Amino acid sequence: xxxxxxxxxxxxxxxxxxxxxxxxxxxxxxxxxxxxxxxxxxxxxxxxxxxxxxxxxxxxxxxxxxxxxxxxxxxxxxxxxxxxxxxxxxxxxxxxxxxxxxxxxxxxxxxxxxxxxxxxxxxxxxxxxxxxxxxxxxxxxxxxxxxxxxxxxxxxxxxxxxxxxxxxxxxxxx
Length: 174
Ligand SMILES: [Zn+2]
Prior knowledge:
The protein contains 3 helices and 5 strands. It is of the alpha+beta class.
């Protein structure tokens, strides 16, 4: 396994739309393993292929209901086919470190996709897990959680991010 480099907001790849995966190849299997390791080493709850610079519709996430780190999951071509309810909660993103804000999401979603073993699945999920997956699917469409904030909050988040980004870059070159 290998830890991959997570792209930060400002990198154009994060604004691109990812392409569907046609089959579970050895290469994709390896990518899923590396994405899972990258997610856990960065203490994330989910990660999309887009964030590691691969424009394929693949997400990995932690099954938070099983306890952190106990049940890593992956989905290819995830698609929300039904959604109900609205909930607000705090969100962050490994591509926008240190920035957090309250985001509105569907409470419950029905999801289709291909699982880790290459099988077509249809699952119903709610709560934090539903939030994580909606966030990761957004990445596959080039959307970041700050895009879902109102204009004032978004501008605030962007200016905070500018500062954090500078600090991170200074750390890297020090
Ligand atoms: Zn994210």
